Amino acid sequence: MELLAHLGIGLEAAFTLNNLLYCLIGVTLGTLVGVLPGLGPVATIAMLLPITYGLSPAAALIMLSGIYYGAQYGGSTTAILVNLPGESSSVVTCLDGHAMARKGRAGAALAIAAIGSFIAGSLSILLLAAAAAPLAEVALKFGPAEYFSLMLLGLVAAVVLAQGDVLKAVAMTLLGLLLGLVGTDVNSGVERFTFGLPQLSDGISFVVISMGIFGIAEIIANLERSRGQPPQVARVGSLMPTREDYRRSWKPMLRGTGLGAVLGVLPGGGAMLGAFASYMVEKRIARHPERFGQGAIEGVAGPESANNAGAQTSFIPMLVLGLPSNAVMALMAGAMMIHGIVPGPQVIDERPELFWGLIVSMWIGNLLLLVLNLPLVGIWVRLLSVPYRLLYPSILLFCCIGVYSVNNSLFDVLLTVAFGLLGYLFIKLRCEPAPLLLGYLLGPLMEENLRRAMLLSRGDPTVFVTRPLSLTLLILCVLAVGLMLIPRVRATRHVAFSED
Amino acid sequence: MKIILPLKFALAALALGVAALAQADAYPSRAVTLVVPFPPGGAADTVGRYYAEQLSASLGQPVVVDNKPGAGTAIAAEAVAKAKPDGYTLSLATAGQLTILPNLQKGLRYDPLQDFTPVAVLASVPNVVAVPAASKVDTLQALIDQAKARPGALSYSSCGNGTLCHLSGELLKNLAGIDLLHVPYKGSAPAVTAVLGGEVDVAVDTLTVLAPQIQAGKLKGLVLSSAQRSPLLPGVPSASEAGLPGFEASGWFGLVLPKGASPQLVEQLSAAIAAIAQAPQTAERFAQNGISVEHSTPAGFAKLIADDGARWGEVIRAGNITLE
């Protein structure tokens, strides 16, 4: 019953008028930056950090974390309506969410995304409250060998599931791997593919690639298709999901929550890997995988649940150990330092009202987001009838502001335009961008951890099979390849991972 | 002599006009930018933001922090080296930026000794060598003995190749005459995670990063890379107490201007910073993060940059460290 006592402390801390207000401000701002393409929680929190000087530490953390998970809600809106990831973790939602919108089912997709996010948020907050400390300990056991095997499984699954033209999918994955290599190699410090440009020495940011290949390319292609006509959205249709939608969605929501929560706790984790994993799993186990990419609601429900679950559980390493696992968490740690709180393992014991207050506020925030987002569905859908000549220049403007704000770098904006042209070429060549993004995400992590594992084992490759967790993951890889060789599965593989 | 009177008036009027003009032009007459070479959230940003806030008050114009992360601080350094030395671009400089990177990185487009006008060092942070709580090693001597018994068998994690964490580890190896395997990570958080998880045997990182883990009993501190103990970790011996007197390797943050800044400007900023550094709340503000407030004359800071640069150059050559 210790948990109840803790939650009592949290309720007391979170339910002050002041903290509720900052929670509301945080999630509203988060929704807004989530909706605006390019502008993400990292830049927003960085800009607001100095303002939090004047707040109490609890109010500051409550507001800043609200921006982060609020953005997970808002990001899906842009993805569904205009096929543009409003927030990088909603890239996957573009695939089926936008397809639903084209069929006039934007309302249902938006509602399912919000409901899935809420369910995932609530469940992973429970997990955070009940098991944050043990989970952090488990995550510590996840070493480079395990990481490598997990990434290998992800990559093998991507190829096994690659649809249509396998050659093109493999080529796109390899191109993604190469793009991921750009920058300074962690293990040796050598710069690769930077052409002597210091702006490339930290690699190409995911925001640049996803905004370019999805956002700008989509706008070019649409201009060509429609010649200035309003977007080809059928009727808006019913705003709310049907009973059939709920029936199809609840299992993907739960699976997405599980995957997202687990991948969120890992070092370096966050919202994105979970969303990709969830999409692949849903497509793999679907009875009719050919529906994916054509507006399958499972492809919205799963990833949207996963990214919100991941956003919540990625707080665990920072809150329990004081070790931020991604850029947003580094900013949260910075916010604690501003208020004279040293982020570290002692925070839970020394400032219980802060830790538990934050957790309770997250649940309140998720509830506020649901209440905020469901009625907004109708308004968002109407956005689709805005003419292109008004909609697209504004989207491009926000893309530029957003990309610039990540590193305050003009170079990144130019690079985004270049990727936009590349993305347009991919559309013309009928190459799917999803495998490229996966290669880009997994490749560098795989290499970094492979080399680190080999360094630590002094060059002994058996390390990957002598550690039980790593071995299990490798066996799953072999099984995945084996499945591909079974004829029945091979027949379905043609339709897997297709998006068009 | 009749002409002279009007001339006198004219001269007086001119003098007044010049004085008024000088008044209008008194530095600073508009917002000042402070470039911080790291993203928001870390120790450099915390120090930068505090000084920006304090300077805003003492200069009477807003001092705005501009985070320019990238290329291990080289992007910010290049931008500042190219800026006008008019006092409207200040830069938070770090030890790595001015004393390590120039020794390691080829094709760097700035010269740490030529391209900047040093103003003052602001703060310093020593490093700590730590092992997991479960480790059998309790003292630095025990670690050295174990490393000598099994050369190369022990490993240490650093926050990246060519960083101060890495070079402090190399300095430890040189001074103690031991061989440890260097395992670089992408920043401090994963490097410390690796030691907490037992993946790597030893952590070398700043007091700011390691103190909370040591205070919470997750790690054991073996030595502080400084001449004195820190009030933050009274149980961790200083370098000489641990039997390794030369192991003094502090990271620091300083304030620089682009090259060619006028002596008056440097003087004015140096005085403003001295006043901030002496205010008791400054030391208080950073104490719990293990950051010591420092202050030096511009000449003292220039000497620190030159001396540290030479010293790290030696460590880099001795350890045959390259980024290739």
Overall pLDDT confidence of chain B: 89
Helix content of chain B: 40-55%
Count of spatially separate domains of chain A: 1
Oligomeric state of the chains in view: heterodimer
Radius of gyration of chain A in whole Å, from Cα?
22 Å
Number of strands of chain A: 2
Domain DUF112 (chain A): 20-438
Transmembrane segments (chain A): 20-39, 45-69, 108-133, 145-161, 166-183, 203-221, 257-281, 315-342, 354-380, 386-403, 410-427, 464-486
Protein name (chain A): TctA family transporter
Keywords (chain A): Membrane, Transmembrane, Transmembrane helix
Which secondary structure elements does this structure contain, and how are they paired or packed?
The complex is a heterodimer of chains A (500) and B (324).
Chain A: H1 2-14, H2 17-35, H3 41-48, H4 57-82, H5 91-102, H6 106-140, H7 144-161, H8 166-181, E1 183-184, E2 191-192, H9 206-226, H10 243-265, H11 272-285, H12 298-313, H13 315-321, H14 327-338, H15 347-350, H16 352-382, H17 388-407, H18 410-429, H19 434-456, H20 463-466, H21 468-485, H22 487-493
Antiparallel strand pairs in A: 1-2
Chain B: H1 4-24, E1 32-36, H2 43-59, E2 63-67, H3 74-82, E3 89-94, H4 95-104, E4 116-132, H5 140-149, E5 155-158, H6 164-176, E6 181-184, H7 188-196, E7 202-206, H8 207-215, E8 219-224, E9 250-258, H9 263-278, H10 280-287, E10 292-293, H11 298-318
Parallel strand pairs in B: 1-2, 1-3, 5-6, 5-7
Antiparallel strand pairs in B: 3-9, 4-7, 4-8, 4-9, 4-10
Keywords (chain A): Membrane, Transmembrane, Transmembrane helix
Domain DUF112 (chain A): 20-438
Organism (chain A): Pseudomonas putida (Arthrobacter siderocapsulatus)
